[in-house]
Amino acid sequence: xxxxxxxxxxxxxxxYHFLDDIKEVQIDxxxxxxxxxxxIGTYAGKTVAFLPRHGKNHSLPPHxxxxxxNLWAMKALGVKRIxxxxxxxxxxKDVQLGHFVLCDQFVxxxxxxxxxxxxxxxxxxxxxxxxxxSQMRDIAYExxxxxxxxxxxxxxxxxxxxxxxxxxxxxxWFASMGWSVINMTGYPEGYLARELEMCYVNISLITxxxxxxxxxxxxxxxxxxxxxxxxxxxxxxxxxxxVIENTPDNFTCTCGNALATAxxxxxxxxxFFPGLI
Length: 277
What we know:
This protein is 25% helix and 22% strand. By secondary structure, it is an alpha/beta fold.
């Protein structure tokens, strides 16, 4: 059975309840199984694919998430745009609890995660200079502002390996660099979307201050993160649904041509993986 899905969403299992006519499908990929079955439903006239990145029971820690399988499965469904909400810690005092940050840059501090589709026999080099979709970020900012959510339109996310949180020394270093938020799942998820020429917008929900933020030295706990995320979960859902509803069919970004500057003019993801699309 073939599907033509407009938008993909990664996130928590509570999102299921906002889609109509849901069908769950299992997608096989060359990189193993995705985190879970993918729920396909409709909202505002659009077909939406939803996948809980940690699995329905939150059984997958950040460093064990099958990122390549997840992105491949979305692409196989025809997805061209992905919304990637996540919980994140703040590294700056002005990025406060409950705020949302629409990151436009990342710094990768992970280790050992498979993070590319082009690891042989085909090799190419996809630019990560501007890793997130500018069109989708503009839409998300407009929708969130109208909904009364406090947003930061840009920001740098430093992605750590996990599952441990930062030491004080690491966190102070990250903060001193001017980076905005810290997270464990932001890489390679967003970059893999770029390799497959899909638009990707990050929505970072601030659940805590990281331990290195000056004057705020209480260590973060998992319980506090979950509590803060749940308190703002309705805002996250409302914003995602608004983005889905207001995303136009036309593209003003260059995400769909990411391979055009990868050293092989005329190539595309379809060239390298003809059976995928």
